[in-house]
Design the sequence.
């Protein structure tokens, strides 16, 4: 077994983690108090009970309630700074963070430019004070209208120089993917790639749409590709990075337990697997815990763990200089 301290200190890169889903439980309670918002829980054990999800739509409900505790740009900056401090404490050198600007604009009313300025201040703090980088993926939530989706793509383009690295798509997969084609195209034509949650709550067809219509450069989750051998072949041939989040899958009932999770099969099939935490406090995990749980359950050694980080660094949407820095740090680190 690899000591957890080793995994904590090992340099890492995280490609699939949500900002609102990473709010520290203590901070969430504080924000609710400050803004006189009543949540179904007012202490930590209560929050833990609240974070027991019946299914994906229940999870979405809780997620929106959490997001609505962010009321001001200062709140946003606070949660982003705390997020970065938590990543730095785990030696996560670079994070690509999904953030649902559309929810904060619609339900809270903070204009997009104020949101992005607050997040930019936090990213500057991360770089200058903590020595780590973060970029943003603004996501379309399935169910949004096409107009809304196009607007989100426009926001991505507008904030490209302020740390946005991609257009994302998330939410309940049965609600559709292909119909947002004009939004994906707009982002791509302006030099911003698309990354897509797919193959988590629905099967291979959503992954195919993400590849063929959205032309996604990475797939969030993707774990249900296993249901279609032709898709597995395609993903292997193209080496499309999969952002695998095992504890998230178990908490949302995609697989009954970690032992049943296909991460080892995906690796054995030669797929491009990265390891991620998704919404760590909501799923009772951290990226370090994901490394510990997966390495222990599937008997992976330290070099296999390092490989997850190597692949994540290579699939990061950063310039070649930053990529080389990440690789140098990951490759040279010794436990
Ligand atoms: Zn996610």
Sequence:
């Amino acid at each position: 077994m690899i000591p957890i301290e080793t995994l904590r200190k090992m340099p890492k890169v995280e490609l699939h983690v949500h900002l609102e889903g990473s709010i520290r439980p203590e901070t969430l309670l504080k924000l609710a108090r400050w803004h006189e918002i009543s949540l179904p829980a007012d202490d930590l054990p209560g929050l833990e009970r609240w974070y027991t999800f019946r299914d994906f739509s229940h999870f979405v409900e809780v997620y929106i309630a959490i997001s609505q505790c962010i009321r001001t740009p200062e709140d946003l900056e606070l949660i982003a700074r705390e997020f970065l401090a938590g990543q730095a404490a785990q030696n996560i050198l670079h994070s690509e963070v999904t953030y649902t600007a559309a929810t904060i604009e619609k339900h809270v009313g903070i204009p997009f430019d104020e949101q992005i300025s607050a997040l930019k201040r936090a990213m500057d703090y991360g770089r200058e004070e903590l020595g780590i980088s973060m970029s943003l993926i603004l996501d379309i939530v399935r169910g949004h209208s096409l107009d809304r989706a196009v607007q989100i793509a426009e926001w991505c383009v507008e904030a490209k120089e302020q740390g946005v690295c991609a257009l994302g798509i998330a939410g309940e997969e049965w609600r559709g993917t292909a119909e947002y084609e004009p939004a994906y195209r707009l982002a791509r034509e302006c030099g911003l790639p698309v990354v897509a949650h797919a193959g988590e709550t629905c099967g291979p067809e959503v992954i195919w749409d993400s590849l063929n219509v959205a032309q996604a450069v990475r797939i969030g989750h993707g774990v249900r590709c296993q249901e279609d051998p032709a898709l597995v072949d395609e993903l292997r041939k193209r080496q499309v990075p999969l952002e695998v989040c095992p504890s998230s899958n178990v908490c949302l009932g995609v697989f009954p337990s970690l032992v049943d999770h296909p991460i080892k099969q995906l690796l054995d099939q030669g797929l491009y697997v990265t390891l991620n935490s998704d919404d760590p406090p909501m799923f009772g995990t951290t990226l370090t815990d994901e490394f510990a749980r997966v390495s222990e359950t599937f008997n992976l050694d330290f070099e296999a763990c390092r490989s997850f980080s190597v692949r994540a660094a290579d699939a990061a949407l950063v310039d070649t200089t930053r990529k080389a820095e990440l690789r140098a740090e990951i490759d040279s680190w010794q436990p």
